[in-house]
Design brief:
Length: about 280
């Protein structure tokens, strides 16, 4: 079978619903980046090939599955370190965003995080970065899921790899705050609920809210939202609704989105459930 030749390609885009977060997915073969800096943090993961770069007095190579990282205003280069070039997924993060994240993790003001190494070996975090970036490119996940996963990624990055990481603010069992957030979800499950809305309802910072909510319920906020939507869709289908209208009525993007979540939570598809109801 004739192989398809690899060629250089670059996709750069922003997500307005996440504060114009900038992302890139690129494959380079012969690209050589001149020594340059970024205004914010550059954080990514190598999908294939290898990226070589000079950074903070070292010549580094980022291989598949490793995280490549640059602090704001730290000069670095970039070139292929393998004949096949390299493919990577990159987040370009405002410095103020990570400083705010560090402060909210600690529950008090913090200075800008600093990362010593330009190449980080952390399989779990690399999978988080890669999976979230791919989900943002596909643009199928809910706003709440993307926001929650994004903050979880920032938390893991700062706590595990920043110099002098902040001490994580303890997550108490704040029943009343979580109850308010759950009530908000139950009332607005069919809307594009944001993390900020839930955190405001709970009167907590977004970073603290995610941890408190999971400790109290055993679920992430977006998992709870999906569950609320599936339960409502099940009720509608039981009442005789067709699957596609039930999907749109309960906040899912389309019927296939409902089907995936329905099967994941209940173990059967909406179609199977509908047949079961009709046969009773």
């Amino acid at each position: 079978m004739k192989s398809i030749p690899v060629r250089e390609q670059t996709k750069l885009w922003r997500l307005p619903k996440l504060g114009n977060l900038e992302l890139m997915h690129a494959t380079y073969l012969t690209q050589t980046f001149a020594r340059h800096t970024h205004e914010g943090f550059a954080v990514g993961v190598i999908e294939s090939g290898a990226l070589g770069f000079d950074y903070r007095g070292e010549s580094l190579i980022a291989s598949p599955g490793t995280i490549n990282l640059a602090n704001p205003d730290e000069a670095h280069t970039g070139h292929a370190a393998a004949e096949s070039g390299w493919t990577y997924r990159m987040f370009y993060l405002d410095a103020a965003l990570l400083q705010q994240a560090a402060a909210e993790i600690a529950g008090r003001s913090k200075s800008l995080p600093f990362f010593q190494s330009g190449v980080v070996h952390d399989d779990r975090l690399a999978r988080m970065i890669h999976g979230l970036h791919a989900a943002m490119e596909q643009n199928e996940a809910s706003l709440l899921e993307l926001e929650s996963r994004f903050l979880n990624m920032l938390t893991a990055l700062i706590l595990r790899h920043a110099d002098a990481p902040p001490v994580l603010q303890s997550a108490g069992r704040e029943h009343t705050a979580v109850k308010r957030a759950k009530e908000f979800i139950e009332a607005y499950y069919n809307e594009n609920v944001s993390l900020a809305q839930l955190a405001n309802a709970a009167c907590l910072s977004p970073f603290h809210f995610i941890r408190v909510f999971r400790k109290e319920t055993g679920l992430t906020p977006h998992a709870y939202l999906n569950q609320a939507r599936v339960r409502r869709a099940r009720s509608l289908i039981a009442a005789g609704w067709a699957i596609a209208p039930a999907a749109y009525e309960t906040g899912f993007a389309d019927q296939s989105h409902l089907t995936r979540q329905f099967k994941c939570i209940l173990g059967i598809t909406p179609g199977q459930y509908s047949n079961f109801i009709q046969d009773r």
